[in-house]
Amino acid sequence: MVENERLRQEMRRCEAELQELRAKPAAPCTGCEHSQESAQLRDKLSQLQLEVAENKGMLSELNLEVQQKTDRLAEVELRLKDCLAEKAQEEERLSRRLRDSHETIASLRAQSPPVKYVIKTVEVESSKTKQALSESQARNQHLQEQVAMQRQVLKEMEQQLQSSHQLTVQLRAQIAMYESELERAHGQMLEEMQSLEEDKNRAIEEAFARAQVEMKAVHENLAGVRTNLLTLQPALRTLTNDYNGLKRQVRGFPLLLQEALRSVKAEIGQAIEEVNSNNQELLRKYRRELQLRKKCHNELVRLKGNIRVIARVRPVTKEDGEGPESTSAVTFDPDDDSIIHLLHKGKPVSFELDKVFSPRASQQDVFQEVQALITSCIDGFNVCIFAYGQTGAGKTYTMEGTTENPGINQRALQLLFSEVQEKASDWEYTITVSAAEIYNEVLRDLLGQEPQEKLEIRLCPDGSGQLYVPGLTEFQVQSVEDINKVFEFGHTNRTTEFTNLNEHSSRSHALLIVTVRGVDCSTGLRTTGKLNLVDLAGSERVGKSGAEGSRLREAQHINKSLSALGDVIAALRSRQGHVPFRNSKLTYLLQDSLSGDSKTLMVVQVSPVEKNTSETLYSLKFAERVRSVELGPGSRRAELGSWSSQEHLEWEPACQTPQPSARAHSAPGSGTTSRPGSIRRKLQPSGKTRPLPV
């Protein structure tokens, strides 16, 4: 009894462990025959269940087909009943019409003998009786016609009755055919249902028999598994111990993982800091090398005498409108301020110039870039700065500016005055200003008494090859107030008009000529520098600007002169022997600035909006071509004032008042009181040098 009790307890414990193992998704025993047999039995059981499910599906399909055929049979029976009812109604209607016809014929036959009798008896009557006889004959004729009509109707009725009989026979044949067809379909359906029922019963019996056999095998396997479980108790205890050890390790794993993550994060952060510091150092070195390369490139360009080109992009304004065509198509390189990118027709195009100013750049930023060129004018160099671009791109704003925010012109003269004041202890300087415009290929004086007077460009008769403009008014300026008066006077005389592209479109090329003459008080060295500040009229498409009449003629002359400027740049770039300076008044007047004896800079103004990308692309391509032109190093114009042969310089007496005074000049050596626009010196063997007017 004690042994039996012990065995019962072990059996309960094994059953509990078996329940736990069943509850846990344990891995199957590898190489166990019972597990393989149980798996095979489970597969067979699942296959039998699938077969039973398929048989049930077939049975449901057959039941559905029987239901459909039963519905069709009920529908045919309803149609047959409707046909029989219609046939009975038609027969009843035809019988009623036939009875009516027979009654009508019988009544007509009953009325005919008295009529004949009257006809026979009236033959011996009087005239009244004759009249009555004729009336009776007419009525008899009418009754005979009605009898004929009734006979015709009777014939038609008999024909319709025959046709209805035929239709009835046909319908009865169809009904018999339908009934036989229904009986045959019903018999087939019963046979199919009986065969399906037999198949179903047979399949269920077979499946049940197979399931019983398999369940018996499963029970036998289960008994074997129980026996094996008794032998697996030591292994289970070992596994339990291992499991508890793993559980303890798992409890301590998060702490180990957090410590490892902290160490890895610290190492990664240190590596990132090192990489960031290295990147910052490399970026600093790259920017320093970029600045050095740009400085060396600018020095190389200066030595070669290339035309320096800077670009300025105006901001998007309200006049550009709204919509996709008014979005900006221009982008800039954050690391290189000499690169500009343009998106034209969905394709990006890049250009490299000497400097690119974004829409956020101020007038002072642009002036700082050209400041060194302007100061070299004091040292005796010829300097030319001209603004190029389409109409409405901001050329006049860059060159002239506004009263509150002046442009290059006023800032240049203010810079010259400050430089002159710094050198006042050693040098004596005189600054004179001239202003002209080229309107419809006509050169006009903006500071003269008659601005509409035509002027011509001449060669100096002294054989130097320099150009001058006879009759061009020249003002001597000594203060900022003088500059403002000159600019105001010249601005009122310049031609501007309204177009679709620009409300205040410049219709002419404006030139501001600043001449700086200096004398070194200690050595007598004389220098003459000339600063040409040119505001070119904007190129425009006639279709966009809507120019008509005189505006159209102005646009044609503007585009022609700019095209001539492009031809001159192309000839200089390809080093042709002949440069077509004389094809236009503009290029002829700029010949001194573009022929190698001057420091030249071009400011190309572009519009950033999408609808002007074609003009912007053309302007930037022209700027790249201009940038590749080599004019040679500029030469300084300086002469010593104390020669052994005693030189003489012809000057007109200067105006002694602080207000600007107008002076017209002509060719040197003409003997008049004027002097040429190029201010050529003429040495004469006199005994002394006349001082410069102050």
Automatic annotation (TrEMBL):
Residues 306-629 form the Kinesin motor domain. Minus-end microtubule-dependent motor protein. Involved in apically targeted transport. Required for zonula adherens maintenance. SMART domains: KISc. It comes from Camelus ferus (Wild bactrian camel). It is found in: Cell junction, Adherens junction; Cytoplasm, Cytoskeleton, Microtubule organizing center, Centrosome; Cytoplasmic vesicle membrane. ATP binds at G389, Q390, T391, G392, A393, G394, K395, T396. CDD domains: KISc_C_terminal (cd01366). It holds the Pfam family Kinesin. Residues 4-93, 140-206, 265-292 form a coiled coil. The gene is KIFC3. It is a peripheral membrane protein. One of its GO terms (biological process) is microtubule-based movement. Keywords: ATP-binding, Cell junction, Coiled coil, Cytoplasm, Cytoplasmic vesicle, Cytoskeleton, Membrane, Microtubule, Motor protein, Nucleotide-binding, Phosphoprotein. This is Kinesin-like protein. GO terms for molecular function: ATP binding; microtubule binding; microtubule motor activity. GO terms for cellular component: adherens junction; centrosome; cytoplasmic vesicle membrane; kinesin complex; microtubule. SUPFAM superfamilies: P-loop containing nucleoside triphosphate hydrolases. PANTHER family: KINESIN-LIKE PROTEIN KIFC3 (PTHR47972:SF5), KINESIN-LIKE PROTEIN KLP-3 (PTHR47972). Its main location: other. It comes from the Eukaryota. Residues 635-694 are annotated as: Disordered.
